[in-house]
């Protein structure tokens, strides 16, 4: 009875069983190097780099590990011998989707580069039980599903209960004779899970340590409320909810208590761990007790990935002053020399501003410390600028008026020795506009570190055909030194190379078209242009402008060139998704258009899907309003994988144009200065609508229900926004965008000229390796030297 049918017999291995078997085999090759690396760090005691982030968007691990360990060919062969399909096995692994987009993926690329450069680096974050939601499209609308990524277990992590640590919340502050005490707190335990981070072919394996929340065993049972023992045990969930789910907000601040708990949870556990490791180190233990922390900034660098881990600043002060009994000034000097802060956005709605009342309830001692930091900071400003009360208001960590709030960016700037933006134009805006008062005070504190991407995942792993073709021409060293791609410039007129580059792109497109047909039941013509816009949906990224162009092309039928269109996944974002799907429905079912124009909304965009779509893309859409996209990193991935870029002079697009030559990108639209000018004059959407017949036609169709005949006023909110409160000025760039797209279509018809431009772009992509970015952080901020030493592996005789 109850016997399962034979194909599910526990003696018959499923593809998932084979995936886990392979994962465990590859993991066995990691552990020796992992242990050896950590042992080597203990012996040599180098300065440690701690990258603190609420997000690590890692994607899948198996193939990346095989590549970095140099095991891919051996594994491919073994799997083939067993009569299995390696790609099928790789598809079984769940993405580790512990991030929203750019910020979380940057952290993942940085971990890869830090290991490859031999830095003693650690990524610290939260082990979310549920990552970024799975996106389903039902009847054109976005529906979210929980991402239960740990359902089948995770072979790449190792729980480390021996390093479990307590984290305190709530309570009150007591002024005792021995000093200040934070008492009557609620305790949550932080259980670390370690994931190995292998460098590329250098035997270095670093650690990403993610904390999981656990209730202590006496949770809710201390107050002898034995009567409700069952309820007390059930209430353990309240504590453990801290690491339950990733907040899916990209570039938007939502001041929820659970989110603040998450931010403090990762910070408190991590700092205890850092101090434990510092005290246990050979270097630290030789010092006399009195001066034990003097060497702290020489042994520890902490990078704050945006303001999300900003509570680390008052927390380290609390440890130094309350627990280690350091005098305030010494503690503050050490703290400032330890921390550095990376700013990721200039959008005001994204800046974290926590209500004072909430912080007072959750972290009363930290609020006192923040007030003390602010008092000393403002005293200093008042000394330098007497009688300038408005400057004091602007520079305060506390925002008065209405509900009092803590400006976390101000806390980070004041508490760090270095502040950086993530592209030249962004760092300039940070210095001259967003934080101009702070930059005037300490100009040397503000730096630029242009983002990068790891060429291991974003070329070798996702585009082996192109990677091999490049290696044939310039050797394999470029994988660790991407600047060597400039050597490709001498092949830009090589007819054979041009044909080979075009052939690799065509193969990638055919493969992606087959994937779309299999997974989404849509047929696209692989010889059409693949015009791709993949990003989180946000008004500043202007998916709507792309949508208006699609409508315009549809209205001009028959279109000049065939093209396929792909896009990914607050009220407006959901309406934008619905509109794109509604337009797609009309366009894709119009017999006159046929296969000439297809619009596809790729649902559930994620790292593993990016690895498929990026190598197949012809045209990369980077069309944010100038001055709004801090950097962008998708733009770099497309450039490296042989797509051309249509974009504004925003973020890293500016530097891409600088590297490749502006004539090798399709640059259009307002520059930052033009946007500023238009803000001064006042942006009047109606004027563009009146002046541009094709824009008027497209908007009238959307407004009248041409794309939603059953609900004619479905998109009235979208149209109303475009006319009356479009901060991102879609209409102002529409005409330039459409004209630029015509130039794109014209060039695409000349396959050879197109491919030559592609080669020029690939040859100019070297700057955008995260290896280069990390070398700059190491030298300018962390003051450590990258090492190309290959850690010796233990040889068994």
* Subunit organisation of the chains: single chain
The biggest beta sheet, please? Answer: 10 strands, mixed
Q: What percent of the residues sit in helical stretches (DSSP H or I)? A: 40-55%
Q: Tally the helices: what do you get? A: 33
User: How many E-type strands?
Assistant: 25
Rg over CA atoms, rounded to whole Å, is 27 Å
Low-confidence stretches: none
Determine the strand fraction and express it as a percent band.
5-15%
Gross morphology is: globular
What is the topological layout?
Elements: H1 15-44, E1 48-52, E2 56-59, H2 62-69, H3 72-81, H4 86-92, E3 96-98, H5 102-116, E4 121-126, E5 134-138, E6 141-145, E7 158-159, E8 165-169, E9 172-176, E10 179-183, E11 186-198, E12 205-214, H6 229-234, H7 236-240, H8 257-280, H9 282-285, H10 296-299, E13 300-305, H11 312-323, H12 328-338, E14 339-342, E15 353-355, H13 356-362, H14 364-384, H15 389-395, E16 398-399, E17 405-407, H16 408-414, E18 418-421, H17 424-434, H18 436-441, E19 446-448, H19 455-461, H20 464-474, H21 495-520, E20 529-532, H22 543-555, E21 563-567, H23 571-588, E22 597-601, H24 607-613, E23 619-622, H25 634-640, E24 644-647, H26 653-660, E25 666-667, H27 672-681, H28 685-691, H29 693-704, H30 716-724, H31 730-748, H32 751-763, H33 770-782
Fold and architecture overview:
The protein is an alpha/beta fold and 797 residues long. 47% of the residues lie in helices and 15% in strands. The strands form six sheets. Strands 1, 4, 7, 8, 11, 12, 13, 14, 18 and 19 form a ten-stranded mixed sheet that branches. Strands 22-21-20-23-24-25 form a six-stranded parallel sheet, sandwiched between helices. Helix 22 (543-555) links the parallel strand 20 and strand 21 (563-567). Helix 28 (685-691) packs across helix 29 (693-704). The mean pLDDT is 94. Belongs to the glycogen phosphorylase family. One of its GO terms (molecular function) is glycogen phosphorylase activity. Its EC number is 2.4.1.1.
């Amino acid at each position: 009875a109850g016997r399962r049918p034979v194909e599910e017999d526990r003696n018959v291995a499923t593809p998932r069983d084979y995936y886990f078997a392979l994962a465990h085999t590859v993991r066995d090759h990691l552990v020796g190097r992992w242990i050896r690396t950590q042992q080597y760090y203990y012996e040599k005691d180098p300065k440690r780099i701690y990258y603190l982030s609420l997000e690590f968007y890692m994607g899948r691990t198996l193939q990346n590990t095989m590549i970095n360990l140099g095991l891919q060919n051996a594994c491919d062969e073994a799997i083939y011998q067993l009569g299995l399909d390696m790609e099928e096995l790789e598809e079984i692994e769940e993405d580790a989707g512990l991030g929203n987009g750019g910020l979380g993926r940057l952290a993942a690329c940085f971990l890869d580069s830090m290991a490859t450069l031999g830095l003693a680096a650690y990524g610290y974050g939260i082990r979310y039980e549920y990552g970024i939601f799975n996106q389903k499209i039902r009847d054109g609308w976005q529906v979210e599903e929980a991402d239960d990524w740990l359902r089948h277990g995770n072979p790449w992590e190792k729980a480390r209960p021996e390093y479990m640590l307590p984290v305190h919340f709530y309570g009150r502050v007591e002024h005792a004779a021995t000093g200040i005490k934070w008492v009557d707190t609620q305790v949550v335990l932080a259980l670390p899970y370690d994931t190995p981070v292998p460098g590329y072919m250098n035997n270095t394996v670093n650690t990403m340590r993610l904390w999981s929340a656990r209730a202590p065993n006496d949770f809710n049972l201390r107050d002898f409320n034995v009567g409700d023992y069952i309820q007390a045990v059930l209430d353990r969930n309240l504590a453990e909810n801290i690491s339950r789910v990733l907040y899916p907000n990209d570039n938007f601040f939502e001041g929820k208590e659970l989110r603040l708990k998450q931010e403090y949870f990762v910070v408190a556990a991590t700092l205890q761990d850092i101090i434990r490791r510092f005290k246990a180190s050979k270097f630290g233990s030789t010092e006399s007790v009195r001066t034990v922390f003097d060497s702290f900034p020489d042994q520890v660098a902490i990078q704050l990935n945006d303001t999300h881990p900003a509570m680390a600043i008052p927390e380290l002060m609390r440890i130094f002053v309350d627990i280690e009994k350091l005098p305030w000034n010494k503690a503050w000097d050490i703290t400032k020399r330890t921390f550095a802060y990376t700013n990721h956005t200039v959008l005001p709605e994204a800046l974290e501003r926590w209500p004072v009342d909430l912080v007072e309830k959750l972290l009363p001692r930290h609020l006192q410390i923040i007030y003390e930091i602010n008092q000393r900071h403002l005293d200093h400003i008042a000394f330098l600028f007497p009688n300038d009360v408005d400057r004091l208001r602007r520079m305060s960590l506390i925002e008065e008026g209405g509900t009092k709030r803590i400006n976390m960016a101000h806390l980070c700037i004041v508490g760090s020795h270095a502040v950086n933006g993530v592209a030249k134009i962004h760092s300039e805006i940070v210095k001259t506009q967003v934080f101009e008062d702070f930059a005037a005070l300490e100009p040397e504190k503000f730096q630029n570190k242009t983002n990068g991407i790891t060429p291991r995942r974003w070329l070798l792993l996702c585009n082996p055909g192109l990677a091999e073709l490049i290696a044939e021409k310039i050797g394999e060293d470029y994988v660790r030194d991407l600047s060597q791609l400039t050597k490709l410039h001498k092949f830009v007129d090589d007819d054979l190379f041009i044909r080979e580059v075009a052939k690799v792109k065509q193969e990638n497109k055919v493969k992606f078209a087959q994937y779309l047909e299999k997974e989404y039941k849509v047929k696209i013509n692989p010889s059409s242009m693949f015009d791709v816009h993949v990003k989180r949906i946000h008004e500043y990224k202007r998916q709507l402008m792309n949508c208006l162009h699609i409508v315009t092309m549809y209205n001009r039928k028959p279109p000049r060139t065939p093209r396929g269109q792909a896009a990914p996944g607050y009220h407006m974002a959901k309406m934008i998704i619905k509109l794109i799907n509604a337009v797609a429905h009309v366009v894709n079912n119009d017999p006159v258009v046929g296969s000439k124009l297809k619009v596809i909304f790729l649902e559930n965009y994620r790292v593993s899907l990016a690895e498929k779509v990026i190598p197949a893309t012809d045209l990369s859409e980077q069309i944010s309003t100038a001055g709004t996209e801090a950097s962008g990193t998708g733009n770099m991935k497309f450039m490296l994988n042989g797509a051309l870029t249509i974009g504004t002079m925003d973020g890293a697009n500016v530097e891409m144009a600088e590297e490749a030559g502006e004539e090798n990108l399709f640059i259009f639209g307002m520059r930052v200065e033009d946007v500023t000018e238009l803000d001064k004059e006042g942006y009047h959407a109606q004027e563009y609508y009146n002046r541009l017949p094709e824009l008027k036609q497209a908007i009238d169709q959307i407004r009248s229900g041409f794309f939603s005949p059953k609900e004619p006023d479905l998109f009235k909110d979208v149209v109303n926004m475009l006319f009356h409160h479009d901060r991102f000025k879609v209409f102002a760039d529409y005409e330039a965008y459409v004209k630029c797209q015509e130039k794109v279509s014209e060039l695409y018809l000349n396959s050879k000229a197109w491919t030559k431009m592609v080669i020029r772009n690939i040859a100019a992509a070297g700057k955008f390796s995260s290896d280069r970015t990390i070398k700059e952080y190491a030298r300018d901020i962390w003051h450590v030297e990258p090492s190309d030493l290959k850690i010796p592996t233990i040889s068994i005789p």
